[in-house]
Each structure stands twice: as structure tokens, then as C-alpha cells.
């Protein structure tokens, strides 16, 4: 499965920032490989796991609209794209270099977190630490999650004047 992130308008494969949260939940459950919780196991609302190892976390605002979605690195069969950049398949350092080259506004915070802000959305990529090679530790070599959120989700309350 390929999921394309189009930052303007926050199109996230079948998801869209601002869509009804219940619709987003139904969409998550309808995607190929969805694994419902085992009987008797409770799962946090908005969390979906897939046979590929992909996990998706959905968050709603107070009006019941999708405000944030986070994709966690799958083991196989799912590619997450921003333009022509495969965010989970390429090394994090290569992703950073290509993002900074292709799009204005990307901020390389420390090599572990990279973010992009538009007027309406925030996209952030994360890995727990930097690794010198995939053989040393793949968790530090590749990004482990990609978050897309409404801008106000990450801005916090306005500062006092």
C-alpha cells in the first residue's frame, strides 16, 4: 500500500485533516490488513494496527474532527510518500537532505526530528536517535514515525502579551 502525504490541504492517503473523527476511524478500519483488537483486549480509541506492522494514531479536536494523524513505521508492504520521497524506506539522513532540497520551510532540528509548517498544518518526522548505519541500529537509521497535524495542535496556547 502507498500512502501519499500532500501537505497543502493535509491529504493523507484516505485521510484528511478536518474530516469527521468517526469517518476517520471507519476509514482506518477499512484499510487493507487492519487487525481488530483480540476479544477482551481494549485499545485506545483512534489506534489502528495492521498486518504490515504499520500503526496509525488518530486524534480529534473538541469538535470531533480529525486534528492529528501519526503513522508508525511498518515492517513491510507500506510506503509513506511526501512528493517523490519515501519517508520510511530511505535513510533518515537522505530524507532530510531531499526534503530540505525540495521544499522550503523544512527545519532540521537535530537530525532526530524534522518538521515542516504551513499556514494550516505541521508535518514532523521522528527517530529516537541517530545511528551511523542500518546495521548498527535501524531505529536510528530510519525515521520511525511521521505526524501530520492541524497547525493549532502543535502551536499550544498563545503567549501573553
Gist of the model:
With 161 residues, the protein is an alpha+beta fold. It has helices at residues 21-30, 92-102, 138-141, 151-155; strands spanning 2-6, 11-12, 15-16, 34-35, 47-50, 55-60, 66-72, 79-82, 85-86, 106-108, 113-117, 121-126, 145-150.
Features:
single chain; 161 residues; alpha+beta; 5-stranded mixed beta sheet; 4 helices; 19% helix; globular; disordered C terminus
Q: Which percent band covers the strand fraction?
A: 25-35%
Helix residue percentage: 10-25%
Oligomer: single chain
How would you sum up the major sheet? Answer: 8 strands, antiparallel
The secondary structure category is alpha+beta
Overall shape: it is globular
The succession of helices and strands, N to C, reads EEEHEEEEEEHEEEHEH
Radius of gyration: 16 Å
Total helices: the number is 4
Tell how many strands the DSSP assignment holds. 13
Biggest sheet strand line-up: 4-5-6-7-13-12-11-10
Average pLDDT taken over every residue: 80
State the low-pLDDT regions, or none.
155-161
N- and C-termini, Cα separation: 48 Å
Descriptive overview:
The chain has 161 residues and is an alpha+beta fold. The chain has helices at 21-30, 92-102, 138-141, 151-155; strands at 2-6, 11-12, 15-16, 34-35, 47-50, 55-60, 66-72, 79-82, 85-86, 106-108, 113-117, 121-126, 145-150. A hairpin with a 4-residue loop joins strand 1 and strand 2 (11-12). The longest helix has 11 residues, at 92-102. The chain starts with a strand and ends in a 6-residue tail after the last helix. Residues 155-161 have low confidence and may be disordered.
Amino acid at each position: 500500500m502507498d500512502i501519499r502525504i500532500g501537505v497543502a490541504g493535509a491529504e493523507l492517503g484516505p485521510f484528511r485533516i478536518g474530516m469527521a473523527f468517526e469517518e476517520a476511524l471507519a476509514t482506518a478500519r477499512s484499510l487493507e490488513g487492519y487487525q481488530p483488537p483480540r476479544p477482551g483486549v481494549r485499545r485506545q480509541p483512534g489506534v489502528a494496527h495492521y498486518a504490515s506492522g504499520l500503526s496509525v494514531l488518530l486524534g480529534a479536536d473538541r469538535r470531533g474532527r480529525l486534528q492529528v494523524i501519526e503513522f508508525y513505521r511498518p515492517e513491510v508492504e507500506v510506503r509513506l510518500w511526501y512528493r517523490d520521497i519515501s519517508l520510511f524506506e530511505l535513510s533518515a539522513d537522505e530524507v532530510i537532505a531531499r526534503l530540505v532540497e525540495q521544499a522550503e520551510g523544512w527545519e532540521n532540528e537535530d537530525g532526530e526530528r524534522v518538521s515542516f509548517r504551513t499556514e494550516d498544518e505541521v508535518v514532523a518526522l521522528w527517530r529516537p536517535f541517530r545511528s551511523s548505519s542500518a546495521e548498527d541500529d535501524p531505529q536510528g537509521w530510519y525515521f520511525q514515525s511521521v505526524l501530520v497535524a492541524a497547525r493549532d495542535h502543535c502551536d499550544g496556547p498563545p503567549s501573553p502579551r
